[in-house]
Amino acid sequence: MNFRKIVELEKHLDVAHHIPGRIRVKFSPLILTKPVTLAAMKEHSELPEAIKDARVNMAARSVVIEYDPEHIQPELIEELIQGTDKDKKAQIISDLYGRLMNNG
After folding, report:
1. Could you point out which of 41, 68, 78, 91 has its C-alpha 20 to 30 Å from the C-alpha of 9?
2. CA atoms within 13 A on the CB side of 50
3. Percentage of the chain with pLDDT > 90?
4. pTM (2 decimals)?
5. How far apart are CA 48 and CA 88, in angstroms?
């Protein structure tokens, strides 16, 4: 999943379940009508290393993201998905891609 797209999708996403290290996000049926957005959700080449897996389930209209909670604070993941402060989201994304792409 391209986390940069999350900022644009906030009104279409809702956290269904979250425990540190794993979050399930439900998405609006409207996303299914946007092929570019669907492609961005399925794309895994841009995942920061601390993101272990991201699986899209079209039938359930959900995405499960597994991440390393020692490298990504769980509240930051929730802020990306449900927060409304675009500047804060931009900073979180910058941190994810700047700090975590080379984490190892």
Report:
1. 68
2. 22
3. 24
4. 0.80
5. 18
